[in-house]
Amino acid sequence: MRLRPASLLASLTLLVAASPLAATELVIPPIQYHQRTLPNGMQVLSVEDHASPNVAVQMWYHVGSKDDPQGRSGFAHLFEHLMFKSTKHMHAEQMDRLTEDVGGANNASTGDDVTNYFEVVPSNHLQTLLWAEADRLSGLNVDGKNFKSERAVVEEEYRQSVLANPYGKLFNAIDPHSYTVHPYKRPTIGSIEDLEAASLQNVIAFHNTFYRPDNVTLIVAGDFDPKQLDAWVDQYFGWIPKPATPIPQVTAKEPVRKKNLRYTVTSETAPLPAVAMTWLIPPASDSADSIALKVAAALLSQGDSSRLYQSLVYRHQVAQQAGADADGRVGPGLFTAYAILASGHQPAEAEKLLREEIIWLATQPIPAAELDKVKTQLLTSELKQRQTAQGIAFALGQASLIEGSPERANTDLVALQKVTEQDVHRVLQKYVTGAHSVTIDYLPQAAKAAPATGKGAAK
């Protein structure tokens, strides 16, 4: 019998409980998606699922902070906000009324490579949402009033998330110091200086360049009739013309690091020091290595039993928090390890322990039970996400736009279960222990020392 996504997790739980081997590979029913492209270049992905009377509608624009104009960081993020203002046929913030007033929800996010807008509503409101998204795409009002008001909102968001957050400046500094050429070096949230330097003409040009039907993927998942969906999509999106000009593409190639680099970032609000280290990793389209790197990061940092927590927080007590992450992107990604220190300790202590744990994981046997536990945690997290129409749509969007194909939403779960100890050793030795790092020492303002020779400094 074909399993519906909503019953998937319960069925898999029964399979695990019935199996005497925790590492037994699970046969996971794939997401059955339909894919088509309109004559104007717009991509459409859909998943029919009648488990609940809801439907998710998502618009994934193929534009992120890497596409911000030079000296104008934060444009993609600014446009995320502008898309909730008025259009040819809608008042400002009307998307809230079309979703929240019928028991649904809406939101948006901006990343390095994409900007996505997502809603979930009772399925009888699907037609209205498709009309509204088409109106945002084709009839957005980009005027001085909207531009100035949303620019002020984004600037306040920067103050709250970067300046007021004690460790906001640390995490905001990771990309600028980790990349030398690639536009990933521009933080997604932008900067107040760049936003203030922007003009309305800059914003209009950005909108005309990237907000077009051949640069967006529409994803619909949930309770709908496929023939009716296709008819509505053709009706509301099919007429929007495809511009004659090509879509600009990022062609910059981040060079291989030739040496280790170290920077110092200071904070007026951080009560204690911190340290972060990064290494370049391949694009997310490299499925074998990107999945193994995610497993490696989870072994280091997933939960209180993880290696970094046990070493830095529990045994040595030099840190109050430690973590690792494998951030896959369309272009070169980052493997990051960090620690926020405990009172009385300095970044060098945490850095030493971080490196020791990574080297140990890269070279020494990994207990089978530990590896199985982490893979099960990652698999369970993915399956939990897919219990809703919104989660299914997110899985398809991530796979299609970041990893290169919607089919990765299915094949990655199979590949995850096959990751071995040798795979973890291989990717860590290739990209981390066998490569050069960037280290950021994060110091409270009072602890700032004169920079040593060869060190960079960030404001």
In short:
It contains 16 helices and 12 strands.
Which percent range fits the helix content? 40-55%
Distance between the termini: 60 Å
What is the overall pLDDT average? 91
Strand order of the largest sheet: 1-2-6-3-5-4
Can you describe this structure?
The protein is of the alpha+beta class and 459 residues long. It folds into 2 domains: 5-18 and 31-237, Cytochrome Bc1 Complex, Chain A, domain 1 (2-Layer Sandwich), CATH 3.30.830.10; 261-458, Cytochrome Bc1 Complex, Chain A, domain 1 (2-Layer Sandwich). The protein is 43% helix and 18% strand. It contains 16 helices and 12 strands. The chain has helices at residues 5-18, 75-82, 94-99, 126-139, 144-164, 168-178, 192-197, 200-210, 226-237, 287-301, 307-315, 347-363, 368-385, 389-402, 408-418, 421-431, and strands at 34-37, 43-48, 54-61, 105-110, 115-122, 216-222, 261-267, 274-281, 319-327, 333-341, 438-444, 456-458. It has a 6-stranded mixed beta sheet, sandwiched between helices. A hairpin with a 5-residue loop joins β1 (34-37) and β2 (43-48). The radius of gyration is 23 Å and the shape is globular. The protein starts with a helix and ends with a strand. Residues 1-22 and 447-459 have low confidence and may be disordered.
